[in-house]
Amino acid sequence: MELMNAHYYFREKCYEAAIKECSSNVGDPMIALLKSFCLVLVDRVNEALEAVRPFISHPKSSVAALLMSIYAHNHCQVVDREALRDLDSSLRNAKQNAETTDLFYEGFYHYLARNHGKAQSILDESLTKDPSSSKTLALLGWLQVDAKKQRAALRQFTSALQLDKNNMDALMGEIYSLGPVEALGKVNALVVKQPKAVVPLIEKMKLQLANRQWDNAADTALRTLGLQADNISAQEVRALKFLVFGKYDEVLPILRKLLSDMTKQEPKAYWKTMRVVSAFSRCCGNNSSVLSELENFVKRAMKTGAHSLDVLLEAGHYYFLTGRWLDAENAYKEAAKMDDASLAFCGLTQVGLAQSGLSNEVREQIEFLIDLDEKKENPELLMLRGLLNPAESIELLDKAVSILQSRSTQYKFGIDYLIHLDPELLIKIAHSYPENKMGEKRKLRTLNLVVETCPGLVEANIELAKVQLSVGDFSEATSTLNNILDNIDGSNPHAHLLFANLHIQKNDFEQAAATLEHGLSNNLQIREYPAYHMLSGLVAKHRGNDTLCINSLKQAVTVSKGPNKLTKNELGTLYAELSAAHMRNKELAQAAEDLKEARELLKGTEQEFTVTIATAQLCAMEGSVHKALALLSDIPKNSPNYVKAQIQKADIYLTYLKDGHGFATSYKKLVEHDPSPEHLLLLGDAYMAIQEPELAVQSYEKAMQSNSGNTKLNCKLARVLVKCHQYHKAIKCYKNSGEEGSVELAELLLKLGQPDKAEQVLTEYPSTKKALTLAKVHEKSGDVKKALRVLKDALEETGRSDLEWSAKICQQMAIYSSQLRDHNTAIEHYKRALTYHPGDTSVQIALAKLYMEVNDWNGCELLCKSLMAKDPHNEPALLMVADLALRRVDLASAMNHFTSLLDRRPNYWVALARLVEVSRRSASLQRSLPYLEAAKSIEPNNPGLHYCYGLYHWYNGEMQAAVQSFNGARGDAEWGSQAVHNMVEVCMGQSAANKLLAELKPQNQDEESGLLLLTSFVRVATHDRSEVERAIIDFTTLANNDTHRVGATLGLGMGYMEQGQAARAKAMLKRMAKHPWSLEEADYLERCWLLLGELYIQAGSQQQASDLLHRVITHNQSSAKAYELLGMIAEKEQSYIKAGQHYLQAWNLSGDSNPSLGYKLAYNQLKSKRYSESVATCQRVLSVYPDYPKIKKDILDKALPRLRS
Asked: Repeat TPR: residue ranges (predicted)?
């Protein structure tokens, strides 16, 4: 063990530690030679001579001892020449009498002195004379290790162990020669045998690190420190782990103790001290605290190693990283005085570049270095060469990356690997790649290499996320940003801003807003970054708030003049967006000022063309369309903005000149300039925009010819083929797209009525991403519970690995739970979705609607207020607040809310339909008419408008007009189904009702039940005995369904009345007497109360009838029937004045159009001696219905004489 330990520390260049291990077994020549050599290396020459002196006279080791003595004398400050002559003479005599074993020790000396060729020949001779020498074989193995011949080394160590299984030095050599995985198994066995030995633990720790088992390596380091509290290797590994994962605060105390222990244990080992600086400075991401701590290591190394080229170069590099240009220059200049000056000159050039940019002097220095570097294998110089030769930069930078990778792979993963890989230099190289597609690909590869090696490097992660965003890889960008925020720095402003940018690129502006808000709550300094205000402006733009958008973008311009600058690209985008916002606000003069300022700032850069494109848009808006086209035509074809310019030209042709040919020609020019698949796709999209799907298919197919394996392109072509109704070809394209298009293929098969095939497609590609579509398959088959199970399994598999997808799954689970009437579970699913995707307004709106549905009005109101606090113009939330007022029967507030919504957006059809409903229920239907007319002036043919007019006419008793209006919405996807339903209600009792029923196509079980309910009412309206009986059977079935219970109960009451079973009808309707009112069931429930009230009146239960009728009026002040029945009650009680008032209200609400009601009104006016009013009522009835003589005989002829008297 002693030899193994000493040899291990010698190889690790821990010479003081090796000397300590050699202190006990002084009689072993190998130990003595090893100790003597280490003593020389730490400048303890006299002790070195003493260590080998006893072995000079030993016949088996005299040659080696004499060689060692000569080596030691040559390292004295003052060389004793006479002593050297005596030693040389003794050496010649000893060699003449050398024994076999003496050859081994002589070979061992040459191995220590790194005379590998000499050592190899001597040991080979020794092995020939003594082939059973295990230690000779082991030493030959170590020679092969130094020569990087691992397989040859392994053979030697294996042979040595076969001769002596207890040869610990050979065992360590075998471990060193094996691959990291296999070696770890061997070292574990050694650790078990020697649990208190430190060296095997150190090697185990390094092998775990080589396998990138960071946690295991850290645990072994702690175990090592338990045995030896000041162990340098263990401290290095612990510090390295924290450093690589970005835990810099944890690194600092370890570095302080490490330097202290290094100073005590290895005071002369400047190479060990500088090795820490080399590794940690290259992996700390320029963290100021770590660099500050490393300065003490630099100072310590310079004290004892200022004569070393490596120390001077590393000191120069350190000072360069910390921005201390003068100190860096001095270090490099000292290094330049030594033999190999090229690296020093390269360092000086880097300093010059950092100070003055690519000046003429720096260019000359780079050219001089190119001439000096014969091998052309200096990565830093290759990067500098790329600055001089932009056309060759990608090739040069690729070579630099390859060299760094090649150098690093010569070492197992660890400190030496990181030094030679140089993550800090790789990041610089990544920044140096050009801003084009090829450059982005290389940059992506380089940054991935850095992040895989050092996942805690924030700068590398941020740059990686930027590139991933740039190439449209949102999934990987999300993963990278999550790594930053979850594992490195949760308050990093750049990560939050990039996340918001990612959501904007995905058109998820609400999530972008939530991300910006979350970033602000984590770090208030985020407002000091212009990107924060620019992204806020884009969110405001999406919300239609151009005033806020302009203010935010202006703030971005102001902040960009501070320390956190925008890039030229970002400045171009900022000014383009700011001018566009002014254009949308019709502030053309202000837009012109912005563009003038942008031109001055970006003159001479590529972004000047971005300003030109925005200027062209301004010209087009000012009416100078041809000037706009001329500006865009001036953008050269070699500009990255050429594509944007052609697209802008196409837009101007289509929007301002209505020129479809010019529109398509602009895209054709793109294809002529570069017939790439991307441009062919744009041309195809253009054809789709002008309704030329066949030409679009041709373009897409051409794009496919050069890119047949592109799954995304196959999907796109399939979508166009679906629009062309070429389903067979579309299915083929979807199949060619593999897993990419499997979901869309399944959805198409579902639409084509082939659910079995859809399920088969999804089964072929098992993935959680297919879960939503597979659930739809089961839903289509009527098995909603199975659909829920599919989503539950997918959610368990996805978990928090993809938060956005998990949120979508939860949202769909909530919808299915609602369909199953399991509202509590649905609420929990919505809440869980919000934990995955906080701030998702679509989920919040859905949850608020569900709260409303289950009558949790407070929950609904709180959620809506929360939404409106973030966005005062959130229409769905405002609509629900209005709906809440309606449900609470606060009709005045509901009216105010709906009118406010419509004042802002007159064509908000849902709000308009609700306004008509509220106007009706507040007995002020005419108040909705101005809003209907305002909407008609904007979109006179919109199906939503026809639907709203249909409601108005229906409620106003204008049935023919109602049918005509509803007919205008009949074929619409959104309004058609409800419009047909209402037409059936209007046409109840007519043959048209049955024809209309055939048009209703239910999409789920709930809609099927709704259709059955409506069909049953149509059957009752026929008054046919068999039809009524069939209706009663269906109503009885539906009465067990929560959704349709109220309507079914009404139907049963009406059916029993048709059969003359009033008592049975009354018993059935009494179930609804105390049923809570809800907007969804309002009409059916109110009709239940009216019918039951009528039965109560017939039975003489006036009070019970009155209570029910007043409840109807509370919710619907326009119920003429309720007032009529109240009039009947008052009339029976001989309260003629009161009866007259009720009948008058009913008469007015019916539009003075019901002669029977007019008769009752006139009669009660007569009985209450209000003769003039009675006469007026009679005359009104007779003017409309002259063939109604009963009222003249019974009332008018009696009232007129009394009026005269």
From this structure: 134-167, 677-710, 807-840
147 is written with which tokens? 């020569």
d(CA 618, CA 587) in angstroms, rounded, equals 10
Q: Are 816 and 779 in contact (CB under 8 A)?
A: yes
Residue 765's pLDDT is 57
- pLDDT tens-digit series, residues 532-544: 999 999 999 988 8
Question: Do residues 608 and 596 make contact, with C-beta atoms less than 8 angstroms apart?
Answer: no
* Helix axes of 309-321 and 288-305: crossing angle, nearest 10 degrees: 160
Residue 571 in 3-state DSSP? helix
718/952 Cα distance (integer angstroms): 44
CA angle 30, 35, 39 (to 5 degrees): 150
Of 1083, 1086, 1031, 1077, the C-alpha closest to 1054 is 1031
Q: At what angle do helices 437-453 and 393-408 cross, to 10 degrees?
A: 20
* Cβ pair 758, 746 in contact under 8 A: yes
Cα separation of 1007 and 1013, whole Å? 10
The DSSP string of 640-659 is TTHHHHHHHHHHHHHHTS--
Closest CA to 445 of 459, 460, 456, 458: 460
Task: For CA atoms 893, 895, 898, 899, give the dihedral sign.
Answer: negative
Whether residue 611 lies inside any domain: the answer is no
Token pair for 579 = 């001018």
Phi, psi for 969 (deg, rounded to 5) = -105, 0
Q: What is the 3-state secondary structure (H, E, C) of 322-336?
A: CCCHHHHHHHHHHHH
**Are the beta carbons of 1047 and 1038 closer than 8 angstroms?**
yes
Mean pLDDT of 11-29: 86
Residues 588 and 596: beta-carbon distance below 8 Å: no
Higher local confidence (pLDDT), 1115 or 839: 1115
% of residues, the chain, pLDDT over 90: 55
Residue 32's nearest CA partner among 60, 830, 13 is 60
How far apart CA 934 and CA 822 sit, in angstroms, is 41
Q: Which domain holds residue 1202?
A: 1119-1205
Q: How far apart are CA 868 and CA 885, in angstroms?
A: 16
Q: Is there a contact between 220 and 198 (Cβ–Cβ < 8 Å)?
A: no
Q: What b-and-e string marks burial along 1153-1176, b requiring 16 or more CB atoms within 10 Å of the CB?
A: ebbebbbbbbbbbbbbebbebbbe
CB burial of 735-765 (b: ≥16 within 10 Å; e: otherwise) equals ebbeebbbbbbbbbbbeeeebebbbebbeeb
Instruction: Give pTM, 2 decimals.
Output: 0.63
Residues with Cβ < 8 Å from 1067, sequence gap 6 or more?
Answer: none
Joined together, the tokens standing for residue 455 give: 């996942």
Residue 586 CA, chain-centre distance (Å), reads 35
pLDDT of residue 1063: 93
CA atoms of 567 and 573, how far apart (whole Å): 10
Domain boundary among 439, 467, 489: 489
- CA 1061, 1062, 1064, 1065 dihedral sign is positive
* Cα 529 to Cα 525: distance, rounded to the nearest angstrom: 8
1182 within a domain of the structure (yes/no): yes
Listed residues 462, 489, 516: the one ending a domain: 489
pLDDT digits (tens, 9 = 90+) for 461-473: 999 999 999 888 8
Q: Are 945 and 936 in contact (CB under 8 A)?
A: yes
Domain count, the chain: 2
Q: Is 1091 within the bounds of a domain?
A: no
Phi and psi torsions of 752, nearest 5°: -85, 5
What CA–CA distance (Å, rounded) separates 799 from 792?
10
pLDDT for 257 equals 96
Helix (H) or strand (E) holding 773: helix 771-780
Angle at 605 between CA 601 and CA 611, to 5 degrees: 65
Residue 535: closest CA among 490, 564, 505, 558: 505
CATH of the domain at 414: 1.25.40.10
